[in-house]
Amino acid sequence: MAHRGLAAGTRRVYLSRIRHLLLSIGHHPTRVDPAMVCQYLRGVSRSSSCSEASLNQRLSAIRFLFRHVHHRPEILEALRGGASGLATPLPALRVEDIARLMRRAEPGRTRVLIALLYGSGLRLEEALHIRIGDIDLRQRTVRVVSRRGRTSRVSVIARALLPDVWNLMRD
After folding, report:
1. 117 DSSP β-pair partners
2. How far apart (Å, rounded) are the C-alpha atoms in residues 30 and 4?
3. DSSP 8-state code for residue 148
């Protein structure tokens, strides 16, 4: 791995992920078939503790193992779709679910947060880090800054939410 230019941290993570795969499957890499690897990744993706980043790490480690160590193109072919093809998507909330959440939420910050998440398509992390300067009520927009602050995007604030946002900004 070092001769391929992988950083020490990457090597450590890859070895950990490969070890987990082989212990879970219970076979030597030469006896593993593509279905076993896909089944393993699907099982991991269904785990509540497995983030998409973790799944992508596992996928990269497995690709490394079967590309550079064991030269198993049939397994690489089975993994061509990437992690997105393996993850089980969460069901979307229905309009009734959102309405029930809004009715039960405390007025003020909590209700505005739920409405921004749903109505403006914000991620939780993005919504929690909005500052007053990011909101333009005249244009009905909110500037969403990435976690690292390198990029930003603009999202629309629903017209029905404007009075709640205004009241929250005044307080």
Report:
1. none
2. 22
3. T
Measured CA to CA in angstroms, residue 164 lies from 43, 56, 112, 169 at distances of: 42, 39, 7, 9
- Give dist(CA 34, CA 81) in Å, integer: 13
**Nearest-angstrom CA–CA distance, 87 and 92:** 15
Exposure of 126 by Cβ count < 10 A (0-12 exposed, 13-18 middle, 19+ buried)? buried
pLDDT tens-digit series, residues 67-103: 889 988 888 888 876 655 554 455 677 888 888 988 8
Burial 41-66 (b: 16+ CB within 10 A, else e): beebbeeeebeeebbebbbbbbbbbb
Question: pTM of the predicted model, to two decimals?
Answer: 0.48
Tokens of 16: 């950990």
Q: Cβ contacts of residue 127 below 8 Å, gap of 6+?
A: 113, 116, 117
The residue to which tokens 């061509």 are assigned: 80
How many CA atoms lie within 13 Å of 139's alpha carbon, on the beta-carbon side? 9
Report helix, strand or coil for 144.
Answer: strand
Q: Which tens digits make up the pLDDT trace of 99-153? A: 898 889 888 888 888 888 888 888 888 888 888 899 999 999 999 887 666 788 8
